[in-house]
Automatic annotation (TrEMBL):
One GO MF term attached to the UniProt entry: oxidoreductase activity
Source organism (scientific name): Natrinema gari JCM 14663
Single GO cellular component term: cytosol
Keywords, alphabetical: Oxidoreductase
Ranges of residues in domain NADP-dependent oxidoreductase: 15-329
Highest taxon, organism lineage: Archaea
Official protein name in the record: Aldo/keto reductase
Matching InterPro entries: AKR_Detox_Biosynth, NAD(P)_OxRdtase_dom_sf, NADP_OxRdtase_dom
Amino acid sequence: MEYTTLGNTGTTVSKLCFGTWRFGKESDGTVETDREEAYDLLDACWEHGINFIDTANVYGNPNGKSERWIGEWLADRGHHREDLVLASKVYFPFDGRGEPGPNDSGLGRKHIRAQIEGTLERLGTDYLDLYYIHRWDENTPIEETMRTLTELVREGKVHYLGASSMAAWKLTKALWTSDIEGLERFDVTQPMFNAADTDDVSDYLEVCADQDIAVCPYSPLAGGFLTGKYERADDGTVIAPDGARGSLTDLFEDRYTSDTAWEVLEAVEGVADEIDATPAQVSLRWLMEQDRFTCVPIVGARTPDQLAENVGAVDLELSDAQFARIDAARGPDDDGYR
C-alpha cells in the first residue's frame, strides 16, 4: 500500500479509502453486505494496509448499523484504534428514535451534538479522525454549523472537518466564514467525481486545489460502470449482470451511462489493455494521479476479491499520454468545461 498526507492535515492515509455505505443496506429487499461479509471486507482492508475507513450515521438499515459493525469489528479483532483513520458524517434524519422530530436532521447545534455522541458510541471510540457534513443545510446559518463543529474539534471529539456534496460557492462561503470568525475549516471534501461523470465539478475542484483541500471522491468507478462489466444494447440501454447495481436501481442508467461515459470507458479499456490492468484499476489510478490536489478515492467493494483488484491500482503508473487520453474522452462539454 502507498500512503499520502491528507491534504493540509498532518494525518497520513492509504491511497484508497474503504467506503462502508453498503453495510446493512437493503436494495429492493436484498441486503447488499451482511455482518459476516462486512467483517471479511474489513479484514481484507487491514491485510492490504488500507487504514482509512469511511462511514456515516445513516448507513445501514436501521441507521447506525454500519458504524456499529465497524466498532464491533475493531473490538473483536483487537486492532489498535490509532492504526485506523475513521470518518463519519452528519446531516440526514436518523431513524434510531422512530419518527424523526423537528430537530432530528440538519446541521444545527442540537442535532450535531446529539449525533456525534451516537456515532462515537457505536464506533466504540472517543474521537473521530474526520467528521463530514453530509449535505449543506439551507435552514441553519453556516456560522452556527462551523462554530459547533469547531467546539467538537477543540473538545477532542473530532480531529478534522470535511464537507460532502455541495456547490463550489457554498464551500467557499464556509471557508470564508471559518477564516473571518477564527473557526476550524474544512480540510477534506467528498464529491461524486470519476472519469465517466458528466456533471461539471471543475469550479468545486478549483476551490479544493487553491485551498489545499483533499478530495475523497465517492463512486470513483461510476457505480461499477467503469469496471467494464456493463454492455450497451443496440437501443442504447444497459445490459447489466445479475446482482450488479445497474440491475438493482432504476437510477443507474440516468446517472452513469451517458454517451460521454461510454467514450470514457472505451479509452479506459484501451489503456487497461496496454498496461495489463483492469478498467477499474485504471479508473482508480486516474483519480490518484490528479496532481492539483490530494485525491483519495473511496472504494465500496462487495467482496475481498474486488477489493484486492482495487488495491492493484496502487501498483500502476499511467503515462502522460494515457492520462490525457482519458481526459480527452471526458470533454469538454458545450461550455468548455468538464
